[in-house]
Amino acid sequence: MDIRKKTVVILCVAITCLILILLVLSETVVLDGFSRVEEQSAQKDTDRVLIALGNDINTLDAVAHDWASRDDTRIFLLTSSSATSWSLLDPDTFERLQFNYILLTNANGTVISGKGYDLDSHSEKPVPPALATLLSSHQQVPLGIKNEFGTMGILQFPEGPLMLTVRPVFSDPDKGRIIGYILLGRYIDATEVSRLSSMAQLPLELQPYSKTDLPADYQVAKARFPRSTSPFVQREGKEALTINAPTYILPQGSVMLGTYSLIRDLTGQPVLILKVSIVRDIYEQGKSTTYYFLALLIIAGLVFGMVILVLLEKTVLSRIFNLSSRLRDIGENRDFSARVNLHGEDEIGSLARSVNGMLGELQTSQEHLQGRLVQSEEKYRLFFNSITDPVIIYRSDVQNACTTIIETNDAAGNLLGYSREEFLSMSPETIMAINVCEERNELFRLANPEEFVHYESFYRSKNGKMIPVEINARIFDEFGQRAVLTIARDITDRKMAEKALMQANKKLNLLNVVTFNDIQNGLFSISGYIGLQKSLSKNMEKTEYLEKEDATLRRISHSLDFAKNYQDLGMKPPRWHNVFQTFVFAISHLDFSRIDRTVNLDNLEIFTDPLLERVFFTLADNVITHGKTATQVTLRYQENAEELILFFEDNGAGIPDNLKEKIFHRGFSAQKGMDLFLAREILEITGIAIRETGIFGKGARFEIIVPRGSFRFTEKKG
Length: 718
Known about the structure:
It contains 16 helices and 25 strands. It has a six-stranded antiparallel sheet with strand order 3-2-1-6-5-4. A five-stranded antiparallel sheet has the order 14-13-17-16-15, sandwiched between helices. Strands 19-21-22-24-23 form a five-stranded mixed sheet. Strand 10 (247-252) and strand 11 (256-264) form a beta hairpin.
């Protein structure tokens, strides 16, 4: 990036940072101020609604107090027992005062006279039992309801929340003894909510606190309400009234603001949540003011930046650009005889003159070093490429991570198939195929550059072939950077010889055991039987011993057959086998016509010993010999990240759990397991395992586990 772009970027960043800072300040100061004003206004509007609701309850209480103080009420309580003779229970009273219930009880709370009224249908309705027995002495009266001062508030009934007031009636105006109570009630219904909304000129909603499917915003507000037991309204002295309704304010987008007030009943238990929806005019005005301010600030910043850019271009940037362009041309052409033409008496002009002096010195040094460099390069390349083992040099950082290859010799290219140019664009981890991390950790534990590490690993050639190598590596300093020198030797032939030798030793040892132990035991048995025959008289029966000798000779013959088969194991190199074809060839030697076959292999091939056909022959023969009831054989596979499992299943009797491993042991059940033992040995030559995992009584299932790299599909599955 040139200095012009950097200057523009710096100015843009500076102006942007200034705008962002002012934006944050406006958000935290201006908008927060508007938000506080908005919340205060919303709280006042909500308080108006709550006060209106409290006034309705207070009005209810005032009427109850007035009626309790009347002489006709006292006289009625002292002289009458008829519920129809109280003059205040006419429909006109209910309609005029908008009451739902008027009850008059004696001192024990028993209703003397009372009535309920439905304001919607303009007809009488029965008094709910819970309300009629509210003041009864045998009921659990809420705290504070039945006392000499009376009470007011809200109670929850099955029919809905009810504004309620209770006033005692005394035997004389000077407050003698209590002779009864007046109870007045009005439901907080849709009509009441609509009336409060009209008074406050705000949309209102009421939701029961205990409602299970409250809207999400109500649930948020419900979780924020403080714990308390204070009722919604409380009387302070004779005239004062205290309203206690905690409020939570929750913005609902950029247009509306919701306030949620918790209303508790006479006992302090939550019963209602009152929501007031308020238009966010104040907040919108704050945002508009902030946007206008930012727009003016951006315009001023752009004008200021353009003026600074023009001044810098004329006095500094254009001259520095010319100096930079001239120096770049000289560097690209490597022509140190060229000079910079830039005049002026300021720092830029002085810099141009210093550059011209430096170019003169570089011209002289270049001519002197050029000749020596050519000679050194030729000697180094001749020596480096004369090394017959692959040499790879790569850089590494302080975290011991490989970065890029910086040099290779011709032997490395011949072994791995890459050109020198391809090597120089690669990471060493591309060719270091196994245990690279362990190799680096061991390497970087070296105390000094004179030490080296020696280990075996694998290189991956260009065609994907894995080549075993023996590596000598050491660390050295390459112009101030850490570098690693590795010299590798191809040990493919040695590895193959070691593997062949190990396999030959294993075969010879096992063949020795089979041949000598089995045949020696058989000969010993025959010798014993012959001795017994000699001891018998001529007239005694010798048939039993002859049969035992014949059985022993058959066992010796079986051992010799096994030795012959095992002698061929591993003699020919492994190769790729088409599993389906091998299975078909194997069962062609058996009478397999009564067995249904289900094969799902998708052209699967596995890399193993040429005796793979004998493995499938053994498995199929076991189905016929031991799976007497088997009618179905399934050959399928399952592939995962690490391996492929080949399943050979039948629906015969199966194998008991305690024999699942023993069937693979040599000599199990009088030579019956010899074939499965040989099958496991054949597969293990190339690292393939076999096990039995069927369920006894439901059939046998042999799983052949093929490691990744030892299986392939000749055509795309699908």
